[in-house]
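During the reporting period the student researcher (J.K.) took over the structure-prediction task from the postdoctoral fellow and processed the backlog of single-chain submissions. One of the processed entries is reproduced below for the supervisory committee.
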Amino acid sequence: MNKRGFIDAETAAHVLPLGVFLLMLSVPDLLGLGADRAAPDAAWYVARPEHWLFPLQTIVCFALLVVFRRYYQFTPHTGWLLAAAAGAAAIVLWIAPGYLFESVQLGEGWWKYLGLAPRVDGFDPTFIKESSETWYVAAVAMRMLRLVVLVPLVEEIFWRGFLMRYLVDPDGDFWKVPFGTFDRRSLVLVTAMFVIIHAPVDYLAAAIYGLLAYWIAVRTKSLSACVVMHATANLLLGIYILTTERWGYW
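J.K. obtained the following structure tokens:
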């Protein structure tokens, strides 16, 4: 914020990409689209809006990142190996409850809030494969681009690049707060907000991931390391999803 109370360009650069990303997710609800609302014979773009919404969301948010690119400070490029290892560990913990659920064959219960639930309903590109192998490959490629590149950038730019520093000194010039500065309030609030934007079934995993990501930010003092951690975790998750067809993870 500037002295007049308006959002300055640097703050907008860190907040708008994720804000637009999340806002676009509400489009199906606003327009009444989706498999749970559409008629049985509805066209794919009505019954499965995610197949056009996610690519559009990817393009729009990438455009915002390009427009605001001069405001992002990814250096120093340090701690990438540690960040990648943390991302790998975090995603193993993320998918482990779902794997355990299927191995033990539990029924529905309160334990779903620990991630112990079936993960089969979600973005499923296989229906395209029956009509066009080319469109199937394109759909998977766009989905992976969103998962592995876009999401790590827009989320880490906001959570670690902006909010983590803002909460250290919300009434002052928070942009002067060194990246990776530890603060108990920012640790709790950033992690809590990161958890809330995920589905309840992922709350526990998101909390663990959020704490690890905060530690990486403090340890490495590098926004790029946070992006590498997130990208590594999402890449491994994407590979797991495509291998097991557990579409509920995305």
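The committee noted the following: The chain has a mean pLDDT of 90.
J.K. will present the remaining backlog at the next meeting.
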